[in-house]
Structure formats: C-alpha cells, structure tokens
Design goal:
Chain lengths: 115, 117
C-alpha cells in the first residue's frame, strides 16, 4: 500500500512569491491533515479535512494561507505571499476516522525555504 | 490547555543498550491517547506505539514499550537493544478526546536520540 505522497520535497522561493504544496493521502483515508513543523519543534496542526470539508482551520493564517481538498482526495496548501517566517517543513497526514485509535500516517513533508 | 513536555533535547546511547525518552502531559480530559513517533532525517513521521488512557497495561511493540504512569501524567518511551538505525528525532503526542472520533494531535518538542556503536 502506498503511503502519503507529498510534492515537492524541497522548495526555495523569494519572499512575497506564491508557493503551493500538494498531498495525496493513503487510498480510502477520509481525513487529511496539514501540519507546520518549525525547526527544532514538533508539528502543529494547520487544517484538518474530513472528506472535502475543512472541519478545523482555526490555526490556519487565513490572510496568506489557503487550502483545498477537491473531491475529498488530493489536497493543496498555498501560501501567497510567502514571508521569511514561513520557512519550515509542511507535513501532510491522513487517517481513517472510526478505526482503532485513528493512527495518522505522515508523508515525508515539503521543506520550504523563503529567502 | 493540553500540553506535551519532552525535557530531553538530546540523548545518546550505546548500541544494544536500552534508553528511556521522557514525556509528560497535561490534560483535563478523562479520555485521551498517547503516541510516540520517530522522525529520521528523511523527514517522515513514523508511528511507533500507542497508549490509551483507559488501557491498564503498558503498550509494547517489538523493541518499543511505553511506561505509562497515569497519576504522574507521564508516558515514557523505552527502546530496548538500541540499534544504529534508531538514531532520529522522537516525538511524544497526545490525542484529545475519545478514540474513534476527531483525532487532533498535540506534539512535544521532541528528543534527538543518537545511537553510538
């Protein structure tokens, strides 16, 4: 079974430029998460989707960040415009709610560097 | 507010020895879950072990065991017979709420483990 796929793995942009990250969750997983991981810290939830609905986006900076999950499968996280402080790793995870202890499966992340 | 504390920024252990990574948590919920994840340099978070708040026995998964002390609100990870491939960041995380429902995870800051030959 394929794991969570993310692309790109690395992205370097200049400040004020837009950037987008893509995530393909594990097949059949109805819940998708985007996390932000700053250097030396644990991941922090940005947004959670159940199917195509964003059910928790309280931590998403909506002035510059946006996300979508079309058809309840793939998801895209966008930043426009990027700031220096956005340099971090962006992790995508998926899970199947209602099964056991809802283990979240993580992708390898996208490391963003804003110059 | 829910919080996870990992007080050891870095640990090292000799190959084949056991090591304990500390984790304390704070929650007012009666139902919660505790996870440990491993993050190697490749960046992917790898699930290791889970302990539910109502589980009476400590969880074990191969060389990993979780020393769950509910009254002290601690959930330490024990790795037995360390291997060079165990060198990585280790994160303790807590799920708010009941199993089977919404699964927001709160992570600690992590502990970097180095296994020496």
């Amino acid at each position: 079974e394929a794991g969570v796929v993310q692309s790109p793995r690395y992205k370097i942009i200049e400040k004020k430029q837009p950037v987008a990250f893509w995530c393909n969750p594990i097949s059949g997983h109805n819940t998708l998460y985007w996390y932000l991981q700053n250097l030396g810290q644990g991941p922090e939830l940005l947004i959670r989707y159940e199917n195509e609905e964003a059910v928790d986006d309280s931590q998403l900076p909506k002035d510059r960040f946006s996300a979508e999950r079309l058809k309840g499968v793939d998801s895209t996280l966008k930043i426009q415009p990027a700031e220096l402080g956005d340099s971090a790793v962006y992790l995508c995870a998926s899970s199947l709610v209602g099964v056991a202890y809802n283990e979240q499966f993580f992708g390898p992340g996208t490391r963003l560097t804003v110059l | 507010a829910q919080k996870i504390t990992q007080t050891q920024p870095g640990m090292f252990v000799q190959e084949k020895e056991a090591v304990t990574l500390d984790c304390t948590y704070d929650t007012s919920d009666q139902s919660y879950g505790l996870f440990w994840y491993k993050q190697p340099s490749s960046g992917e978070m790898i699930f290791l072990i889970y302990q539910g708040s109502y589980d009476e026995q400590n969880a074990t998964e191969g060389r990993y065991s979780l020393n769950f002390q509910k009254a002290r609100k601690s959930a330490n990870l024990v790795i037995s017979a360390s291997q060079l491939g165990d060198s990585a960041m280790y994160f303790c995380a807590m799920r708010e709420g009941r199993s089977g429902g919404y699964n927001k995870l709160i992570f600690g800051a992590g502990t970097r483990l180095a296994v020496h030959p």
